[in-house]
Amino acid sequence: PRLPGFAAKPAWSLAAGHTAPGVLDLGGTLLFAKDASGAYLKDFDDAEAFLEPDTWGDDRRSPAPQGPNRVLHLSEAPQPLTLEFRDTRTGKLRASLKAATDSVTLTGWRDGAPAVAVGTSRTAGSDGLTAEKTTSTVTVYDGRGRKLGATPATRRPETGLYYAAALSEGYRVDPADATVRLTPVGGGTARTVTCTEEGADCAYDPRTGLIGAARATAPPVLGGYGAGFENANVGGTDMVRITLSDLATGKKVWSSADAEIPPGVELYDNGDPDLEPMPDSETLSLLRVTDGRVLVAWQASQSDDDTWIHAWYDLESGDLTDSYEATRSVLLAPSGDLAAEDAVPGGTFTGTTVWRLPGGKRLWTQEEGADETPLDPVRFTRDGSVLYGYTTAEDGTEHGLAVDPRTREVLAEDLPVDHVPAVDEATGYGHLSTTEGFHAFAPAG
């Protein structure tokens, strides 16, 4: 079927012998993998990537986080694979890499550019006195197959932490006790994320790739900055603060403790004139660092866990530059001028809202109980002209849907779920895999 926002015919395709080829999007490069027989691998289910190998295939697994595919291959023992780095626009083979690997996963490098992490493991058998020992290494490559660096890695600890989540923008993430250690891949100065105050605990969630302390969460690394937490022993007005530090120097450059609380956040005031009122919910999340600005989500109140205030701050001055009411989970358009309410994995979704940015003006909202089919948005086209998502029929069948995000006009309905294209933000190309092969589409017009 015709895919709104894209050319009518594919720019190029790959035949795959009745298997939907797996792919990792490296920003202008698409990565495929072939096994020893020359057959393209399917994607490894992201939902299974954080489970122990003996539970792979268990239907009781938790929903995977939405977003770009993160896992192309995982196996209990290294497998001989050929990795193909293909130009997104033309399909031309840029590089080919042979590796005996037990993991091929999406990661990022220190400039935020997508990269691929290839894991290898070696096992030394027992000599009768010492136990069998397995050592693992992860090597990171850019979109042209060039080696960026390598680092030792812990192989499948009890928490289910795999290579995909153990790396963050060129840093290895090592949780230990009440801290998280950030070690540069390929060498450099390591930094420690420390939670201050008695009883504090820095936790790392491999499913989301976020670290957290008390009621605050943040990615470990964003745009060359490392997140941190202060006053994590929450009680009354002693809410946790999120900090940002320059990873090159270790110097703290921003803290939510100094940030203006945005309008719409309910305040707690204990009546003491010497204490400033603090947010009632004491819950906040660091979302983005881009173009010298930081985006923080503040929960509006304890009584409403799905109303959040998104606030933008200037990193240099600390000034609040924009804020608007949003929801717990938000999908941001690559163009930066639109956002849509996203479904929370495992939750009941009742429909979406679309906002114009900056300013957060609501363009339209699906009202619960208004006899509407809830749209679960999954991605915008690069220019923001089309919003793709999923709807579920009364019989439980899922379909793809495309709408104009500014007018809510339906542009395509009843798309097969495997025909909702992924979008390469670097080029604007859309791509999808079906049992008939892989197809890449140029942006329309």
Topology:
Blueprint: E1 12-14, E2 24-25, E3 29-34, E4 71-87, E5 93-108, E6 114-124, E7 133-141, E8 147-153, H1 163-166, E9 167-168, E10 171-176, E11 179-184, E12 191-194, E13 203-205, E14 210-213, E15 216-218, E16 221-222, E17 225-230, E18 241-246, E19 252-255, E20 267-268, E21 278-279, E22 284-290, E23 293-301, E24 304-314, E25 320-326, E26 330-332, E27 338-341, E28 353-356, E29 361-365, E30 376-380, E31 387-392, E32 398-403, E33 410-415, E34 422-423, E35 430-434, E36 437-441
What are the segments in which pLDDT stays under 50 over at least 5 consecutive residues? Answer: 55-66, 157-161
Count of individual beta strands: 36
Order of strands across the main sheet: 2-3-4-5-6-7-8
- In terms of structural class, how would the helical and strand content be classed? mainly beta
Let me know the largest β-sheet.
7 strands, antiparallel
Q: What's the end-to-end separation, in Å?
A: 18 Å
Morphology call? globular
Strand percentage = over 45%
What's the average pLDDT? 85
Please report the number of helical segments: 1
Helix share, percent: under 10%
Roughly how many Å is the radius of gyration? 23 Å
Describe the protein's architecture and organization.
Mean pLDDT is 85; it is low at 55-66 and 157-161. A hairpin with a 6-residue loop joins strand 32 and strand 33 (410-415). The protein has 445 residues and is mainly β. The protein has one helix and 36 strands.
Short description:
The protein has 445 residues and is mainly beta. Helices cover 1% and strands 46% of the residues.
